[in-house]
Design brief:
By secondary structure, this protein is mainly alpha-helical. It contains 15 helices and 5 strands. A 5-stranded parallel β-sheet has the order 2-1-3-4-5, with helices on both faces.
């Protein structure tokens, strides 16, 4: 048990509710904590958020299907709403420290980002702290973001990104906010360790979690953006080339992988589509690595792909086939070749070059 009053038994019970898609049980457990005196913020960040991390781990390990993960995530979202509603009814929300009116925060997910729960939790934590919050939800385009910024005039935009292949799209949103003179706070693992790639894209601040974000917003904030993008023109050009070649590259890699990746052995069907999407995300990660000029975007996704395939009894040796096929086609792109070489070294260190088992 910790200081929040959330015990290991409570966490285990909540996990059971998520595993069984038990909406009533999850809501009763979570709201019961709030009514018993545990702060809503602690329940959100000490119960729901870590439970959702475990949901993702169970999907990645192959223990759960996509449907089970979606069902559990749905219950988590309902639980967040119930916790916030119970807290507001009980009057536990508080006004931010310091003088002046509460800050107006616009919360959005990066373009292409559909993992909305982290931004949902952030929204409710900020509201509990007394901030004025407007949430746009998942996958917000730069045009939609700019339109809302102009119409509602937020003091700051909070941008969430879980998947690093969306970094080039997040950059467009950050640049959009810069043009409007609105600072950007970022969060989520997609922005890299300690927000490395967020700062590279020109964000003003990175917060590791919702509590850190709330605390950061209580401190003095620059009236205009102070971040500066370090994305190089050459990287943008190399990225653009990869985007234009994506369909051609995807077709080339799918052909190369047909004999080693089971889902691609047929030319159609759900299994083929899932395998092709898997390959496409690897291409997107390579493109994002080129964009931010950091091979870790690609090698990190290869590490995930290795674990994902191994958990599903698919030989990760196919990833070496993928890097070799791309290397053959991208010899005129030094940035892409550097990332692919790093990826191959990563796979070799993980033992993917040992070949399929006898």
């Amino acid at each position: 048990m910790n200081g929040t009053g959330i015990t290991d038994t409570i966490r285990a019970d909540f996990d059971v509710c998520l595993a069984g898609a038990d909406e009533d049980g999850a809501l009763e457990l979570a709201t019961g904590l709030v009514t018993s005196g545990v702060s809503a913020e602690d329940v959100l960040l000490g119960l729901v958020a870590p439970a959702q991390v475990r949901v993702g781990e169970r999907w990645e390990s192959g223990e759960w299907t996509v449907a089970q993960e979606h069902a559990a995530t749905h219950v988590s979202r309902l639980t967040v709403d119930a916790i916030a509603s119970t807290a507001r009814t009980g009057g536990t929300a508080r006004t931010p420290a310091g003088a002046g009116p509460p800050r107006h925060v616009l919360v959005a997910c990066s373009d292409g980002e559909w993992h909305v729960l982290p931004s949902h939790i952030l929204t409710e934590v900020l509201r509990l702290r007394g901030f004025q919050v407007r949430s746009l939800g998942a996958s917000v385009s730069p045009h939609e973001l700019l339109s809302d910024v102009h119409q509602n005039g937020p003091d700051v935009v909070a941008l969430s990104c879980t998947l690093s292949w969306n970094l080039p799209l997040a950059h467009r949103q950050i640049e959009t906010c810069r043009c409007a003179g609105v600072p950007v706070m970022t969060g989520g693992p997609g922005f890299g360790p300690e927000g490395t790639w967020a700062y590279a894209l020109g964000a003003d601040l990175y917060a590791a979690d919702a509590r850190s974000a709330a605390e950061a917003l209580l401190r003095p904030w620059p009236p205009v953006t102070c971040g500066e993008s370090s994305v190089q023109p050459g990287a943008v050009e190399a990225y653009a080339v990869l985007v234009r070649q994506r369909l051609e590259l995807l077709d080339h890699v799918v052909h190369a992988l047909r004999d080693v990746l089971p889902g691609l052995r047929s030319r159609s069907g759900m299994e083929h589509e899932e395998a092709a999407d898997f390959v496409g995300r690897l291409l997107d990660s390579l493109a994002a690595a080129v964009f931010v000029d950091d091979e870790r975007v690609f090698t990190g996704h290869l590490a995930f792909a290795t674990a994902y395939l191994t958990a599903r009894s698919v030989d990760p040796h196919c990833l070496l086939t993928l890097t070799d096929a791309l290397t053959d086609r991208l010899r005129e792109s030094p940035r892409a070749l550097a990332a692919l070489a790093a990826g191959r070294r990563c796979l070799t260190e993980q033992g993917a070059d040992s070949g399929p088992p006898e």
